[in-house]
TrEMBL record, chain A:
This is F-box domain-containing protein. Residues 3-41 form the F-box domain. It comes from Caenorhabditis latens.
UniProtKB/TrEMBL annotation, chain B:
The lineage of its organism: Eukaryota, Metazoa, Ecdysozoa, Nematoda, Chromadorea. Residues 130-166 form the SKP1 component dimerisation domain. Belongs to the SKP1 family. It comes from Caenorhabditis latens. InterPro entries: SKP1, SKP1-like, SKP1-like_dim_sf, SKP1/BTB/POZ_sf, Skp1_comp_dimer, Skp1_comp_POZ. This is Skp1-related protein. One of its GO terms (biological process) is ubiquitin-dependent protein catabolic process.
């Protein structure tokens, strides 16, 4: 069978062909030659969502998300990187019931070098970084510094690093603006204080003793989840008062758990116990 | 017992609807008849028909010459357009990687030699038929499935960096038009 002269196609057809290929096929194609690697971005790859998950010193994952699938490259592996492909469901969650397909990709460098290669080839920003709990703080700094060499904002960041240095973390939040979602599951010293210039659209903080009422009232998030917080009934009264006055038009979800909530007193005029509507066994705390 | 000849659905619809028909002449002088709904899938042909002021009355007396498309490709194109003439208009898509499956009928139609496929794409590009372009590109994109870079280089005829450099050097060494 004769070869198909891909590079002789009219530009409009070449673009369509590239748009039809999935990220793994595009990456394999990019490895054919420098000339081809420079053409890959014509396939509209700039809107792909690339995530880097540093789960441990020798466990890293790179995820490339399209509108329908997620391609996950798993390290450690030398030369042949296993790639797991999962389909997204209609509500944008990955279908976990199906066994993911496994493909592979040949790469001789480190995981971070591969992320760099992917971002350069696809001409897209890094969408999300995530650090595991056994990830040392120094590596988080290294990772965020690497992000800052490419961009000053990031869609999502998840920080679960133990022994997070408060001052250093403040510096990271000051330099790197998180726009979509921020997870902070690390324990911070009680004297840690941070004022967001601009809140991400969604936050999930565990043990946010450092987040005071003033901060909560200043938030304009779409989704707020705070577990193990210090908020009291009167704090929540103040928040709901502002909400009833139309102060948080973007708010879609609010979940606050606190040991300081008093089950015997009401919140925002609702007598205790306040229960979840579709699960009466669950008491909102 | 005599068996009734099977009439293709397309023809039944044509008779029932009494459609406007147009004549197209390929570069090698083959003549094709195509219905109005089908020809509208080609932006180039429909613009031409509109600009020439062809109507139901004079359409068949004024065949449209298409110099850039031969009879073989035009036959495939007419078949495709007649097949898809009543398809719902596809929603506008954004500049994003697209995932869709090629229908079996179209896969059969486009099961052709790579050189023929290349020529068909050039014709499709000239006639500006978005859906056929999408489908041809799906066939080309599918060639990349589960292939290594080395296999892709062979399938798509992609020169290595060294070959590209050599080509560039020989191009710069060769005398220009005035030399």
């Amino acid at each position: 069978m004769t070869e198909f002269p891909l590079l002789r196609l009219p530009l409009v057809a070449l673009k369509e062909c590239l748009k039809i290929m999935n990220p793994l096929e595009l990456l394999n194609l990019s490895m054919c030659s420098t000339k081809v690697s420079k053409l890959i971005k014509l396939g509209g790859t700039s809107s792909l969502e690339v995530s880097y998950l540093f789960l441990g010193s020798d466990t890293k994952q790179i995820e490339i998300g399209t509108s329908r699938s997620i391609y996950r490259f798993e390290f450690p592996a030398s030369h042949t990187i296993p790639v797991f492909i999962s389909q997204r469901t209609a509500d944008f969650l990955v279908a976990v019931s199906q066994k993911p397909e496994k493909a592979s990709f040949s790469w001789n460098g480190s995981s971070l070098e591969l992320v760099d290669y992917i971002l350069d080839t696809f001409n897209c920003p890094i969408h999300s970084i995530s650090s595991g709990s056994i990830y040392p703080y120094s590596s988080l700094v290294e990772l965020t510094n690497w992000v800052l060499t490419r961009q000053s904002t990031i869609g999502e960041m998840s920080v679960t690093t133990r022994n997070l240095d408060g001052e250093g973390f403040k510096e990271i939040l000051d330099k790197l603006t998180v726009t979509e979602h921020l997870d902070v599951l690390s324990k911070l010293n009680p004297d840690f204080q941070y004022t967001f210039k601009k809140f991400p659209r969604s936050i999930y903080f565990d043990s946010p003793y450092w987040m005071n009422l003033e901060q909560l009232l200043a938030s304009d998030c779409k989704s707020i989840t705070l577990s193990n917080s210090f908020f009291t009934n009167s704090n929540l009264d103040a928040y709901f008062e502002k909400w009833k006055n139309g102060d948080y038009p973007n708010l879609k979800s609010l979940r606050i758990a606190s040991d300081r909530l008093d089950d015997s007193a009401g919140i925002a005029g609702v007598a205790p116990p306040v229960r979840v509507e579709n699960n009466p066994e669950m008491v909102i705390r | 017992m005599s068996v009734e000849p099977e009439v293709p659905i397309v023809q039944v619809e044509e008779v029932r609807e009494n459609p406007v028909l147009y004549k197209i002449i390929s570069s090698d002088n083959h003549v094709f008849t195509i219905s109005e709904h089908a020809v509208k899938l080609s932006k180039t042909l429909w613009d031409l028909i509109t600009n020439l002021g062809l109507t139901a009355e004079n359409a068949l007396d004024n065949p449209i010459p298409v110099e850039n498309v031969n009879g073989k490709n035009m036959e495939t194109i007419v078949q495709f357009c007649e097949r898809h003439k009543y398809d719902e208009e596809e929603p506008e898509y954004t500049n994003y990687i697209r995932e869709f499956v090629l229908p079996e009928w179209d896969r059969q139609l486009l099961s052709i030699d790579n050189e023929e496929l290349f020529q068909l794409i050039l014709a499709t590009n000239y006639l500006d038929i978005q859906k056929l372009m999408d489908y041809c590109c799906r066939v080309i994109g599918d060639m990349a499935k589960d292939k290594t870079p080395e296999e892709l280089r062979i399938i798509y005829g992609i020169p290595t960096d060294a070959e590209d450099d050599a080509l560039e050097r020989s191009a710069s060494d060769s005398p220009g038009p005035s030399g």
